[in-house]
Amino acid sequence: MTALWTSDYAAAATGGCATRPWQAHSVSIDSRTLEPGALFVALKDVRDGHEFVADALKRGAAAAMVSRVPEGLAEDAPLLIVDDVLRGLEALASAARARTTAKVIGITGSVGKTSTKEMLRAILAGQGKVHAAEKSYNNHWGVPLTLARMPADADFAVIEIGMNHPGEIAPLARLADLDAALVTTVAPAHLAAFGRVENIAREKASIMQGLRPGGVAVLNADIPTSETLFDAARTRGARIVGFGEKGSEATLLVSTPQNGQTVAQARMTGPDGAVHPLLFKLQSPGKHFAMNGLAALAVAAALGVDLALAAGDLGRWAPYEGRGARETILLDIVHDGMTLELIDDSYNANPASVGAALDMLAAIAPVDGIGRVSRGRRIAILGDMLELGADEMTLHAALAEHPAMASVDVIHCVGARSHALWEALPAERRGQWCQDSAEMAAEMRHLLDAGDIVLVKGSLGIRLSRVVDAIRKLGQVRPQET
Question: Is 477 annotated as a binding-site member?
Answer without folding.
Answer: no
